[in-house]
Amino acid sequence: MASLVSHTTVDCRDAYALSRWWQAVLDHVEDPDDPNEPGHDECLIRSRDGHHQLLFIEVPEAKRGKNRVHLDLRPREGARDEELARLLALGAAVVDDRRQRDGTGWVVLADPEGNEFCLLRSTREVAATRASGGAG
Fold this sequence. Notes:
The chain is an alpha/beta fold. It has two domains: 1-62, 2-Layer Sandwich (Signal recognition particle alu RNA binding heterodimer, srp9/1); 63-136, Signal recognition particle alu RNA binding heterodimer, srp9/1, CATH 3.30.720. It contains three helices and eight strands; from the N terminus they run E-H-E-E-E-E-H-E-E-E-H. The strands form two sheets. The chain has a four-stranded mixed beta sheet, with helices on one face. Strand 3 (42-46) and strand 4 (53-58) form a beta hairpin. The protein is globular, with a radius of gyration of 16 Å. The N and C termini lie far apart (34 Å).
């Protein structure tokens, strides 16, 4: 027997605002039968194929310290640095830049409430590095 992940829960101060932000980042959608609205203390978004869900739940305390669990994002199209520019324009903040001179590495970012996540290279970028004899 095994378990499956129903959804990933993010504690936050404003469930609606943060769910809308992540909706833009991930191109996720709301449940049309239970739309998210300002003032809701729980807001759920899901991938368009329904395989991944994020639930934002309001809590009274502010975030403290580094996340123990975080999301690793990979651009669907384009390159990591192009996606980084888009995420920064949406309001993400750079926490730690781990990009290397050879193009490998990642960037640690924070969403508007300070929750960390990482931005990796695209699959295309990884494949190009491997094809040229470099590390993935």
